[in-house]
Amino acid sequence: MKKLLAGAAISALTATSAFGMGHGAPVTIGVILGFTGPIESLTPDMAAGAELAVAEANASGNFLMGKEILTERADSTCVDASAATAAAERLITASEVVAIMGADCSGVTTAVANNVAIPNGVVMVSPSATSPALSEIDDNGLFFRTAPSDARQGQVIAEILGERGVTDIAVTYTNNDYGKGLADAFEAAFTAAGGSVSITAAHEDGKGDYSAEVGALSAAGSDTLAVFGYVDQGGRGIIQSSLDSGAFDTFVLGDGMIGDSLTEALGSDIDGTYGTAPGATGDAFTFFDAMAKANGIEGDGPYRGESYDAAALIILAMQAGGEATREAVAQNLLNVANAPGVPIGPGQLGVALQLLEAGVNINYQGATGVELIGPGEAAGAYIEYEVIGGVLTPIGNR
Amino acid sequence: MVDILNALVLFSNFVLIPGLAYGAQLALGALGVTLIYAVLRFSNFAHGDLMAFGTMATILVTWWFQSMGISFGVLPTALLALPFGIAIAAVMSLFMDRAVYSFYRKKRAAPVTFVIASVGVMFILNGVVRLIIGPDDQRFADGERFIVRARDFEAWSGLSEGLALRSTQAITLVVAILIVIALFWFLNRTRMGKAMRAYSDNEDLALLSGIDPARVVMVTWIIAAALATIAGVLYGLDKSFKPFTYFQLLLPIFAAAIVGGIGNPVGAIAGGFVIAFSEVTVTYAYKRFLGHLLPENLAPDGLVQLLSTDYKFAVSFVILVVVLLFRPTGLFRGKVI
Fold first, then answer.
1. Which domain of life, per UniProt (chain B) (predicted)?
2. Which of B251, B309, B311, B316 is most worth mutating to test chain A (most A CB atoms within 10 A of its CB)?
3. Which of A177, A198, B142, B189 could be disulfide-bonded to A222 (CB atoms 3.0-4.6 Å)?
4. Does domain A151-279+381-397 sit in CATH 3.40.50.2300?
C-alpha cells in the first residue's frame, strides 16, 4: 500500500496535462473471449474488465497525446478452434487490431496463437488460459498471460507439502488436459524437491463407484492423497470412497476441488485437508473489485482482474514504446509488467501513462499483482486453504 | 500371524465386501433379465433403464417421505419408499408391454424384433428419467452410514489395516438373500410360478393345459420390474444414482446372465458374483496385500495390478466372449442365445 501511495505522489509531481490533443486515428484492441459456449457465464464480466481498463486510459487523456483506444469483441467459443481462429483472423486482418486481449480457454488460445497471432506478429495476452502446454509454444515473444500456468500451481502445492513434512503421496487426476497437466507439473516439482509419488492414476468423471480406483491408490502405501479433479465430479467420489473404506484421511486439493459443495457433502470428515486455488486477497484486488462494481460489473466470477490487467498491459506497452503499433506492444510489455519501476495499482492507469511519457519506468501490479515470469506468464498468486471444522478456510497467500 | 490377519482384513475391505455387495446387485439385475428371457423369450435391453426408472420413482417417494418427516430410524428411508417405487415401475412395465410388446406378440414376431423394440423402449425410458429427475448425480441415502468404521476397527483390533462395513452393503446382502429365497419359493412352490415355468418350457403345451398367457406375461413383468427396482435402489444406496451409470450397468448385468446361463435363475446369481469378483480382483493392486504376507525382502515394488481400473468393463466383455466361445449355454446350462 505504501508503494501505491508513493506512485501517486510521483504522479502529482510530474503532472503535465495532455487533454484534448486528438492525435490521429484511434487504435483498436481485440477482445476475443468465449461469449458463447461452456464459460459464457464468465466472459461478459471478463470483457467488461478489459474494457474498463481501456475506458480508464481514454478518460485520462494521457495515452499517446490523447489518442483514443477502441475495443472490438470476437467470440472464441472456448471449444471450437476453427471458429476462434476465424474470429481472430477477422480481428487481425479486417479490424487491424494492435493486440489481442484473449483468448480464454487453453485449447482455443493455443490454436489462435499458433495459427493467427504469432504468424502476423500480433501480441496476445490471455487472462485465463492455464494449461502448462502454453508455456512451451514457440511464440516469438508474442504470447503472454496474466493467469498463472498450472505448472506453477504444481510447484506451489509441492512447496506446501514440503513445509508440512509430507514426503510420500499418491496422486489421482481427472482424465483431461487440465488434470493431466496439473498432475505432471506437481509430480515434477515434488520429486525435484525430494518427495516421492507412489502412484499416479487417472480417474474418469461421472462414474457411480470409485472403490476400485481407491483400492489401487491405497495399495501403493501412501497416507496422503492428492486429488486434481472437479469438486462436483469424480474428485468428490474419490474422496467419499476413500473415507468410506478408510483408505486415506488427508487429502491435498487442486483448484478444481476447492468449492463449498465439497465441505457441504463431507463436512468435518475431511478436517486437515488442504489445497490451493488461484486468487488474490489484499488491498489491490479489493480496490479493483469496488471499482468494477461502481462501473456496472456486477458478477463475482473469476478472471475479471486478470482481464483488466491484460488490457492495461497492452495499453501501457504502447505508451512505453511511444507508438500504437504491434511492435511497440511486443517489445515493451514485459518492461511495464515487471520491476524495476514505480508500482502501479488498479485505477492508476492515467498516472502510469504520464510516468511513461516522462520516461519513468513503471512496474505494473494491477488488480492481481502482475509479475510475468519465464515465457511471459503470471507468477501466480494462490490462496492456501485448509478444512477447519468442516469449512474451507483461507490460511495464507502464496 | 498379525501379518496374515492384516492381509485378510485388507483383502476383505477392498475386495471381499465390495465384491459381495456389487455381486448381489448384479445378481438381482441379472435375475430380471433372465426371467424375461425365459418367459417372454427375448433379451430385454431396456432393463438397465427400467432399473433407473424404478430407482427414480423410489427416490421421489423418499424425498416426499423426508419432507414429511417420516424416517426409518437407522435404516435408509428409501427402503420404506421401495414398495411404492416397485409399484410405479410395474405400472410402467405393463404400460410398455401393452403399448409395444403385445403388438409383436400377437404377430408372433421373431425374437430379434423384440430385442430391437426393447432398444426403443430403452431410449424412451432413458429420456423419461432424464426429463423427470435430470442427468445428474442424486444421493438419497440417509440413516446410519456405517456398521463398522475403518478407524474404529483399527482401534478395536489393534491391526494396522482398517475394515469398513457400510450399512448399505449389509442391507444389499440381506435384501438380496431374502428376495432370492422368495423368488425361488414362488417359482417352485406356487401355482403361478409353476405356470410360468411351464409357459417358459413350452408355450403351446402350456396353453393347452389351460394356463392363461396374459396372466403369465403380466406377472412376469411385475416381478421383473420389482427385481429391477430393488437392484437399482440397492446400487443407488450403496454408490450413487445417476441415469447414465444405470445404462452402463446393462453390460455387466447381461454378462452375468449369459455367463450363468441365460434363462436359468441359479445361473443369474452365480453369474452376478463371477462378474463382480472378476472385475474387482483383476483391477485390485495387490502390493500391500502381498507386502503383509511375503517376507520383507520379497515384498513387491510394483503395484501388482493386473489391469488398470479403467478397464473394469472390459473384464465383463472378455468373460462374456470366452463363455460364448467355449460354453455357449453358460455355467448352469441355460439356453443358447
1. Bacteria
2. B309
3. A198
4. yes
